[in-house]
Amino acid sequence: MNFEDNPAEAEYRAKVRAWIAANRPDMSHLLPEENRNWHPAHKEVARKWQHIKADAGYACLSWPKERGGAGGTQIEEAIFNQEEARAGIQFTYFMTGLHMLLPAMMEFSTDEASLARVPPAVRGEEIWCQLFSEPSSGSDSAGIRTAAVQDGNDWVINGQKVWNSGAQIADYGMMVARTDPTVPKHKGLTAFWLDMKTPGVEVRPIMMMSGDNELNEVFLTDVRIPDNQRVGEIGGGWKVIISTLMNERAALGSGTGLNWRDVIKLAGQVPSFEGTALDDPTFREWLADLYVDAEAIRLLSFRTLTALSHGKTPGPEGSAGKLLWSGLGGNLSSQAVDILDHGGLIDDPAIALASGAFQHRFLWAPGLRLGGGTDEIMKNIIAERVLGLPGEPRVDKDVPFRDIPRGR
Amino acid sequence: MNFDYTDDQKELKDEARRFLADVAPLTVARGVLDDPARGHDAALWARIGEQGWCGAAIPELYGGLGLGYVELCALAEELGRAVAPVPFASSVYLFAEALLIAGSEAQKAEWLPKVSTGELIGTIAATEGAGVLVAERIATRFENGTLTGTKLPVTDGMAADSAVVLAKEGLFLVDLTGPGVTRESVSTLDPTRGAAKLVFDKAPAEPLASGNAREQLSRIHDRAAILLAFEALGGADRALEMARDYALERYAFGRPIGSYQAIKHKLADVFVRNEVARANAYYGAWALSSDAPELGLAAAAARVSSSAAYYLAAKENIQTHGGIGFTWEADCHFFYRRARHLSLILGAPRVWKRHLADRLVARLAAEEVQ
Ligand SMILES: Cc1cc2nc3c(=O)[nH]c(=O)nc-3n(C[C@H](O)[C@H](O)[C@H](O)COP(=O)(O)OP(=O)(O)OC[C@H]3O[C@@H](n4cnc5c(N)ncnc54)[C@H](O)[C@@H]3O)c2cc1C
Fold first, then answer.
1. Phi and psi dihedrals of A142, rounded to 5?
2. Interchain CB contacts (distance < 8 Å): A and B
3. From the DSSP assignment, how many helices (H) and strands (E) are in chain A?
4. Ligand 1: centre distance to CA A376 (Å)
């Protein structure tokens, strides 16, 4: 057990820290309402930062150079990410592409034209979205109905995707479709990537309860794509889904968003019975409980790293990190809004403390428990794949997909 | 950076697990439960002594093995998993640590070799009854080389030969077999860890080397908190495994109860709490073994998270077992009892949550100054 950097790591950390301090993006020109995810001005800052990082060899550090990475180690990448987070720089635009989809592309595709899409994403020039979920295929992620039919050297795709984060600004998407409805559901799926400007792709925004426009529906009507945009084998789509979902949970479980430092700073500014909320014993007791969870998220990411550095792939226990992280977001934002008392109601970024970040998080929090696999699905995974408890009795496992009963 | 035991440490831990499975099945704890006057199992204690475990982290200079604190954490985890009815924690994490932190060279040289072999059992006597332990409220007095006062409850107070005693004037070493000491056994929630009421009436006592007793006690408690967190973690893991195993075997409505989501999700919640405890305990082990400045914060986090995890795991293990889990006959209550024993002996979770928040706020303030 060692949570310290060795001399080489410490040196690297110092170098990275200094570099981030010297090059960090300037957000001061953003108005409070612009300083939000998905705002074009905010996105522009993120794009530039990604580009600067790539030029300096800090983007996708552990990826091979020919894929736009820097050929570094996983440890170096982790150190950079930690320092970036420590400096309070957190952009999510590139996460879907760089943490989930393109690793799967590199794992499952051998087509050079497809793999040529990787470096521009690393430089922040191209943004990716995930087109997996459908109206009747969310938790049941193998229940996909969007159909892909082979036509010569092309595939013709028809169907509807939903809850696609960032599809409104994405340049490319990775999509899973059903290519064979006559076999059991996990076996008839195939993954593809596509240009979001391909004829027949229509993106319609969905406003989330937080008021943000980050989610979308994507309608696919006679969308024609060449076979080289297939990712993996025909019928191998489930493997691609699993790989991206594991990556997603590991990324989400490593913990982004507001944390204990932010809430302590807030509490120190808010009047309470005597002194500030930070002096309130009930707040401090709550803070202790929050901290042990936050620390666990941080420390468990070291376990992932330890596994990787020993050449092992992180296992299903990573679902614990996703659960902790989604719980933390709700717990923290709820408490922060409460200590503000009446003032907690104010979410106008121009006048709310911390530019309303806690109110925004409060309205976002329910989504944290859904996206990337719901809390319930995480618990199923832990119970079945970690603890070895039996699966639910299933009516859909060995039947041809087209014969499976459907609800709403 | 390594979030794991080393291969050598794993080997030690596996060996300890095999050894304890052999010499300390739960029937041994049951023997003490059914005859609480025993307080601990002397035969098991002797076997553990032979292994040299008591001296695992004690320097060779004082007769120990000088292996290190991560090794001691590994042993603690296994002892906790075995719910071993022995005075290991009192003697090793508290008495020996108190001497290492606050003892003079002569005191260390005299006492630590005997602790290392297990021939001497030591303990710490700090609390004087119900309520939070506050050093300023301690009534026990030191005068003319003797101690006068009452300590209650003192874990292993019946079994111990010597104790480090907290008095208003500081920390003192007392021979519990000597004059001026009367002790009586006290019934507690966990009879497998015996306890006593100690009454000192002009009992000869020797001050530990000078120093600020409050700071020293706090250091002793911090270090012990990490080791006890490993005991709790071991117990919590075993309680979860027991529940899992039973959920696979027990059928209701024609299915294993472990196929019902109410059971699955409950046990997944337990798993998550155990993971939180594990992560914080491991960090504590690192802080302890490297004497890192983070030690105080890490100790509080390890203690708070392991107390919560063990309690949850122990009570949900009973729930998963249904009626049989509620019987004296079943083993479930060992964990439920031990969980509470561990979370109270150095001060209840709310005390440690307070320490945690104080230390966290202090750390943030220090970071800002930098
Ligand atoms: C903010 C956000 C971002 C997202 N981004 C994307 C994206 O970029 N791309 C994409 O493809 N998808 C995305 N999703 C979709 C997300 O993966 C799904 O919403 C999620 O998997 C749940 O599916 P569902 O909405 O169909 O709910 P359902 O699956 O219908 O679930 C409804 C309820 O039933 C529970 N439930 C379902 N099955 C079980 C079971 N077996 N056991 C116990 N309980 C069960 C669920 O936990 C939930 O509480 C996003 C979702 C959100 C909220």
1. -95, 5
2. 155
3. 13, 8
4. 10
**Which residues on neighbouring strands pair with residue A205, listed in sequence order?**
A216
Q: Which of A305, A380, A387 sits opposite B1 (nearest CB)?
A: A305
Looking at chain A, the whole-number percentage of residues with pLDDT higher than 90 is: 75
Kindly calculate the radius of gyration of chain B based on its CA atoms and give it in whole angstroms. Answer: 20
Residues 6 or more apart whose Cβ sits within 8 Å of residue B230? B73, B74, B76, B77, B80, B281, B285, B306
| More confidently predicted of B53 and A355 | B53
DSSP B94: I
**How far is A391 from chain B, CA to nearest CA, in Å?**
6
Do B180 and B165 contact (CB within 8 A), yes or no? no
For ligand 1, whether the C-beta of A371 sits within 6 Å is yes
CATH architecture of A254-386: Up-down Bundle (1.20)
The whole-number pLDDT of residue A254 equals 65
B358 close to A (CB below 8 A): yes
| Contact in structure between B89 and B160 (CB atoms under 8 Å) | no
What is the Cα–Cα distance from B293 to A312, expressed in whole angstroms? 32
- Under CATH, what is the fold of the domain A128-236? Butyryl-CoA Dehydrogenase, subunit A; domain 2 (2.40.110)
pLDDT tens, residue by residue, B289-308:
999 999 999 999 999 999 99
- What are the DSSP calls for A359-402, one per residue? HHHHHHHHHHTTTTS-HHHHHHHIIIIIS-PPPPP-SSSSSBGG
Tokens of A351: 């006048």
**Given this model, what pLDDT does residue A75 score?**
86
Residues, chain A, total?
A: 408
- Show the domains of chain B with their CATH numbers: 7-121 (1.10.540.10), 123-211 (2.40.110.10), 214-369 (1.20.140.10)
Query: Considering CB atoms only, which of B70, B282, B364 is closest to A299?
Result: B282
Identify the bridge partners of residue B1 per DSSP, sorted by sequence position: none
Burial of A310 (0-12, 13-18, 19+ CB in 10 A): exposed
Bond before B349 cis per omega within 30 degrees: no
- Whole-angstrom distance, CA of residue A250 vs CA of residue A304: 8
The residues pairing with A271 across neighbouring beta strands, listed in sequence order, are A276
pLDDT band at A253 (very low <50, low <70, confident <90, very high): low
Residues A42-60, mean pLDDT to the nearest whole number: 95
Residue closest to B300 by CA, chosen among A160, A250, A285: A285
Tens digits of residue pLDDT in B235-287: 999 999 999 999 999 999 999 999 999 999 999 999 999 999 999 999 999 99
Closest by Cα among A86, A224, A88 to A148? A224
Q: How far is CA B17 from each of CA B55, B67, B81, rounded to the nearest angstrom? A: 18, 18, 9
Residues of chain A with CATH 1.20.140.10: 254-386
The complex scores an ipTM of 0.96
Give per-residue pLDDT as tens, A70-79: 999 888 998 8
Predicted confidence (pLDDT) per residue in B43-91, tens digit? 999 999 999 999 999 999 999 999 999 999 999 999 999 999 999 999 9
B199 CB-contact burial (10 Å; exposed 0-12 / middle 13-18 / buried 19+) = middle
